[in-house]
Design goal:
The structure holds two protein chains of two kinds. By secondary structure, chain A is α/β, with parallel strands linked by helices. Helices cover 41% and strands 13% of the residues of chain A. Chain B is an alpha+beta fold. In chain B, strand 2 and strand 3 form a beta hairpin. Classes of the chains: A alpha/beta, B alpha+beta.
Chain lengths: 387, 141
Amino acid sequence: MYLDYAATTPVYPEVVQAMAPYWNKKFGNPSSVHSWGQEARMAIDKSRARAAELLGVEPMEIIFTGTTTSSTNLAIQGVAKVLKNQGNHLITSAIEHHGVLDVVRGLEKQGFINTILGVDKYGLVDLKALESAITKKTTLATIMYANNEVGAVQPIKKIARIIKSKEKELKTKICFHVDAATTVGWLDIKVNRLGADLLTLGSHKFGGPKGVGILYLKKGTPLAPIFFGGHHEKGIWPGTEATPLIVGMVKALEISLKNEKKVKSRVKSLRDRLIKGVLQIPNTQLTGHPQKRLADIASFIIKGVEGEAMLLLLSDYGIAASSGSACTSGELKPSHVLLAMGIPAEKAHGSIRFSLGEKTTKEEIDYVIKVLPGVVGRLRKMRRGIS
Amino acid sequence: MYSKKVMDHFRHPRNMGEMKNPDVQAQVGNSICGDIMKIYLKINKNKKGEDYVKEIKFQTLGCAAAIATTSALTELVKGKTLKQALGVDKKAIAKYLGGLPPIKLHCSILSQEALRKAIKKLKLGKGKKKVADKIDGVSQS
């Protein structure tokens, strides 16, 4: 029972099919002038046009990159660099993915300063703090559309309005980057409606292949490349284009958005069924906002158990989930997202996240609801004498 | 990620549970990762008149590695004299379990700390502070 779709999704069979010709039949280098090259170039151009159409933007505003993390790096470092003469202040939030937070923090060494906005107990960004953090030196604000660990959905349009009105007031340029990695199929992704200058999408979160991503770059938004090597993607993301991956990603985007309506309401009701079931276990709580949350994320704190132990026992029952426990992270610290929400380290220990997908069934959810109390009970028994 | 033996000790921890009327019990916590460990001991004298671990039990709020390494520790120290028991280190535990991922080696330290604390309390309780200090010295080397 795979309930870790927010970690990654299986590639749609139609996507595998769409990619197939580009490995060894239409394998040409898109930059070559002969027919092999033309064929590949055409596939990329077509994919770009289709992606633009799906996102409600212009084809020239779509940049194909390596991964979600490549896109966030390009967006943040690229803006910071190109506007360095105007200012050196970057704003982000405490619950961003490491792909954003580490980039912003990393730029400190290059003379940039940052404001990391706090969140409330639901994981929603403090908008007043955002407004007052913006100064004449601010060149970039980067906020995630929805959080991957607790599903909290940020009011992105409102955030965009705050930033843009400050931009006007201060007569300066402030770029707004949105990390929308986990939102395709769950939230409105018509980028023209969101008010972002840059927006990151990750292919493998919506049924596309790993190793490719999209960066939306609004016309007129300044951006410097962060590495060099050719004219590809207008010189902003140099390197031979990964034709099969690009074709596959855009096909996956198309399928996800086509299925969105049908899938979302079904998954949401399964998510609510799971939440209701898990909260029947004593001493458990939902993390994230009860309403303003992604349709696919059911995340909890289960007191008196440790996340990794819970995941391994669930795995014995064939259930895949994830946790923000220190023991599951490479750095032995609890999830920075849960800590930012004011959840103490010892409670974050017992965090667990189930993320649903379009293939998730009611039977699977009921199986989890049936199995989990036993797993929790087994682990709680181990600590019974501990005060 | 984990060896078969680690998974076996995690799924079926040995000597896990509460002990009634222990000679001593001690609890320690790891403030960084959040694990908590409690150890109970029953002590007896062997033919030479030395104290040895007659029974040991543990309870924990910890990850799979914490559970498995403590289970291993209890197996390794049972029947050993207190001095021998204090000599069981993370290397011995890792070896017994057929290896541990490097990042998880520290998990085994918590159980040793709990054991050390229990033995120290035991000695102090019997009014033999000097011995306790000496044992502490041994364990920290």
